[in-house]
Protein 1
Amino acid sequence: MNISIDGADAKTYDALRGCEGGWKVLLQAVEKLARDRVRRGIPLSLNAVCVLSPATLPQIRTIVGLCESLGFDSLGFMPIQEIDSVNAFYPDALRGLWTDEAKRGEVESVVETVEWLLARARAGEGIRLENSRAYLEAVPLAFLGRESPSTCVTGHLNTMIDPYGDVFPCWPYLEWKRLPVGNVRQAPWREIWRSEAYRRSREETQRCRACFWDCHLEENVLFHRPEVNGLRVAREELRQAPAAAAATPLRSLARTSRRTP
């Protein structure tokens, strides 16, 4: 079971999740799950998921300690993603978390966080990391405004079906409101999966480098070695021009997501 832990306290969590009192409910629910799975002998694995953003980066070490104390079995991270179709609904304070300037200004913090997480994983310390080394090393690229470092294989491995029956090759395509490949209310999924439309969609997604969704990029690095090491790229940029790096405007992933790959 995946549970979002975006924040180390009520103020941060409730603001990011848009739910007053959500922090209290979250803690109660996790404690009950951890307790009941033992009492009932249920083989349930609890995984915490945390979005890396300007709001959560200062709290990462506290979040890791919190997840350990709550009884989570593992913890995974992913960088904040821009979703054009829903961004407009967020208040200004939250929309500012994924601007080019905000993300670029956190590159040094992202590098420190990734290095700390990798060091813990190498030493076998604490809670198990759900992320692979290759994935974590790619994360700084998202804050630099760069493309994903690996060819996408999602079209061969995944299908997303929304509540209306529309079929998409991946989660970002659904969120970005791309045209669906088909609809399971109009044709069987097996027929859609083997269709010419899905074949063209696979060719399109193979060329796409617009997202850093953990569920897709983790699969990509299994089949295609990343072309660049994002952690090294970020370190080099910080060494060359640490002050200029924070002020340089970059192409946002939201604009990337709107183009045809």
Protein 2
Amino acid sequence: MPLAIQAGLWGLLSGSALLLGALIGWFAHLPQRLIAAVMAFGAGVLISALSFELMDEAWKQGGFGPVAGGFLTGAAIYTAANWVLAHRGARHRKRSGATGKRDAQVAAHPDNGLALALGALLDGIPESIVIGVSLIEGGAVGLVAVIAVFLSNLPEGLSSAAGLKKEGKSAAYTFGLWTGIALTSGAAASIGYVAFAGADPGAVAFVQAIAAGAILAMIVDTMVPEAFEGTHDFAGLISVGGFLVAFGLSKLS
């Protein structure tokens, strides 16, 4: 199977967690603390993945200049886009329960489905590109990256679907929305591979660092606050567990 198609399928797999989370959020009621714990664990996995799968590999390929420039650029782009979307109803898109803040967001932006979708794309596209780029070296996908993205997408789909249901959106609208985003994730992974296969190592390093910066900004801006609100004093411990699991997979694979 061509590697570009493999990249797309791996991206689709990680993006499908949004649809899986949406199904759970629509039909089941899970404790907020459990969802927040998944968020905390996923944050730890992502931090490990961007440290060892992205930044370390980017350093080896491009050195400090491209890595530093890309890292800051990715964080700046994400922060600016996230600020815009936050003021249009997507601030609490990863919130694990229908709390007062989520309710206030819905009251202020009763038709925030588009903002939520764009927020999910903002979070997911850098991650999906990373999956595609990981196939360039050695022809094997970065398993840690796929797991990390999957775990970060699951609670986002869950919480957003629950919010859309509360807003009165139909099941067809909600699942169609997340299916489209999952397909976009697969396309982004495929594009990531095609666009940078055979590219200059410095350019690849720069792109990896951009993705790493965007992902770290996303973790701190959206995942960590929501994880802490649900798990409080245990958020750090759970995140460390996620980091350790990802670190072990990275070194043992």
Protein 3
Amino acid sequence: MTEPDQHSSPIKTPKQLIIVVALAFIVPIVIIGLLSQLLTSTPHDTSGDEQRVLERIKPVGSVVIADASAPRGNLTGEQVYGQVCKSCHDAGLAGAPKSGDKAQWTARIAEGEKTLVQHAVAGFQGKAGVMPPKGGNADLTDDEVHRAVVYLANQVGAGWKEPAQTVATAAPAAKSPAAAAPAAVATSTAATTPPAAAAAGGAADGKGVYEKTCAVCHATGLAGAPKFGDKAAWTPRIATGLNTLHNSALHGKNAMPPKGGNLALTDADVAAAVDYMAAAAK
């Protein structure tokens, strides 16, 4: 009996060889195709990827502009202090009691809330200093001034309560960065315009600013302010030059608080008011 040859190949014919070679190419390709289809057909959560994309492309910031028609009279005591009272009460200008100085405020608080509010609203000249009506900002309502008095008194422990806001403040309207761009450009342009040039171009109403802010001191000569139209008082000041007068009014000098105590005024407003008063004394 003949034993089988253990070293013989199972491929006996050229046809078998061709089939084996073809299968060696086709089978791996089919397996790879099936695996690819399996992986791509499996659903997966893309919300994370979408969220990351949205985070990358979102705007850098947004501009919120308060409604121009929002009702007046709703400033808090802290807001009024920051906009008007701070210029005198932080540094003690014109004899104003410094914010938080208990020694200076104790005697005043003892006079009572009603008296202090009356002095702040109508103005008051005492032995130690001068308080112009509404801190020099005639646009403030009596309640806003009242809240500022309460805020100052409470800094030294008075424990008073600010008058409630009687009218709801209008909700701010959000503006897209693109829509706000023109306003930003206009602001930038205005900021580079010298105060005197802006006033000369009619951008500010010197008479209106004087009547609303400056008149409280300059109409009566409070705290040594040169009276409106007093040529003798104004002549030496005018001689120093309008630029010097503008700087003194903008940054404060002696008993003159920065911007007359009304920090809401623009530099152009202040310059226009100075020019108006100087012209009236010539």
Protein 4
Amino acid sequence: MQIGSYWLLSALISLLVGFFVVFNQRELHMHDIICPHCSKAFKVDETGYADILKQVRDSEFDQQLHDRLELAEKDKQAAVELAKSQLAIELQREQAAKDAVIQELRGKLDSGESEKKLAVTEAKTALEKERDALANQLEQLRQEKKNALELAEAKLLSELQNAAAKKDSEIQDLKAKLETLAVSQQLAVTQAVMEVEKERDELKIGLTQAALQQQQVEQSLKDKYETQIKDRDDAIERLRDMKARLSTKMVGESLEQHCEIEFNRVRAMAFPHAYFEKDNDAKSGSKGDYIFRDNDEAGTEIVSIMFEMKNESDKTTTKSKNEDFLRELDKDRNEKKCEYAVLVSLLEPENELYNTGIVDVFHRYPKMYVVRPQFFLPLITLLRNAAMNSLKYKSELALIKGQNIDITNFENELESFKSNFGRNYDLASRKFQTAIEEIDKSIDHLQKTKEALLSTDKNLRLANDKAQEVTIKKLTKNNPTMAGKFLELKESTSHASPSSES
């Protein structure tokens, strides 16, 4: 009985040791976490540790994603602003070039008139100078002649008495020379006057030709501008007549067809991968006119635009405004998940705000523009080029999203494995706990049996001790009959012993 009890106790001790080993191995997979505020350490199991790690990683990833998106948005906005400033500079340059051409033509007209006046003045001045020079030469010749005559008269008077005949001949010679000199002088003066008159006539002819050329240039410019003004007036009149004959629906469709034709004209060269079609999805109750989407060769979307075209006839009594259509356009942009919204409008033709170029209405609705039809293609080009700068960030974002999907799938599989393992562990733990409880019950039962056995052993030992304490003297203490019997038996035993020895 005692051997069986000892064997049961050994088996129970072995089971308890195995339970403690399993429990210790389970605790080895727990992590010590130190609180940064109170510096106390506490234990977290695998599930809690994985949840904390996932929260930290998700927050860091969200922060990095938010920073990347902010950088992309800033780059895109800067590119749009730069493109707008460049377009404004180009418009200013073109306007300055036109002003310079007009100023140059005006300058040429003024310079031609000034040159004409200057040439007349110079010719007149030259004629006056030559006239004065000739007059001075004639005066000098007259003075020289006078001086010579006076000298000759003095010589003749001094030599008259000595050689009268000689003087007469010399006088005749001098007269002949004087006549020859006068003729030659008269001929030189005549030739000089003829040359001056010839140059004057040539200058007059040149001035006349320059005036005729100037008149021809002025007349050609005048005819050219009059022709352009007439053509413009005719075109305006034709447009007005066409608008007057079109219905309201046809007026709107003419603008849509114009924009579609302009886009298809450059689609093959500028937008080979672009989608530009009418918006026919009216499930939400409204729809825009056209949707533009452009993708790169890898299929990543570069930019998307929702277009609305608005036009009206000049005969319309109730004039619409551009702001009347902005709210609905923003709603269509959000429902069709487009990045930008553009209103191509011919409304409010007298409003200079919409006639100057691309109008940004971000203060009313995000990422929205209002343009005239001539800025339809330039705006698409600007937004597409601006979006190309952020395409790299979009590609990186798509790559990060793909990696995050892989990490999420891995985490899901890991969580599934952990949940299955935890479920099996919980089941085994409950079974183990049930076994422990049954063992505890068995231990209690064995303990009670042990106590009963120990009590029996104690009683047997007490009984043995009492049995060992029993003597003949105690048994016959109050029993004289038994005492006499035992005494007789003792005496008979003592008498029989000597005879047996002999």
